[in-house]
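[Meeting: bench + compute handoff]

Bench side (C.D.) handed over the final construct sequence. Compute side (W.E.) agreed to return the predicted structure before the next meeting so the bench team could plan truncations. Sequence as handed over:
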Amino acid sequence: MKNKTKAIIIAVISILVLIVFLQNTQRVDTQILFFTISAPRVIMLAGAFLVGVLVGALTVFWTRKSSQDK
């Protein structure tokens, strides 16, 4: 039951993320330090999402590793 609930939650979140991505296709200029990047907003959102997922995964990895060392 727990795995089924987890799968449903992941599916719902994935669908919501996909909807947000599809609604943001216009081109935007983003300035990062001294550089200006012109790209569709969906690319910027996907990049920010992937950075967040990576930071979350690394946090879980480091937390589990430090708790196993104790």
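W.E. noted at the follow-up: The chain is about 70% helix and 15% strand. C.D. will use this when planning the next construct.
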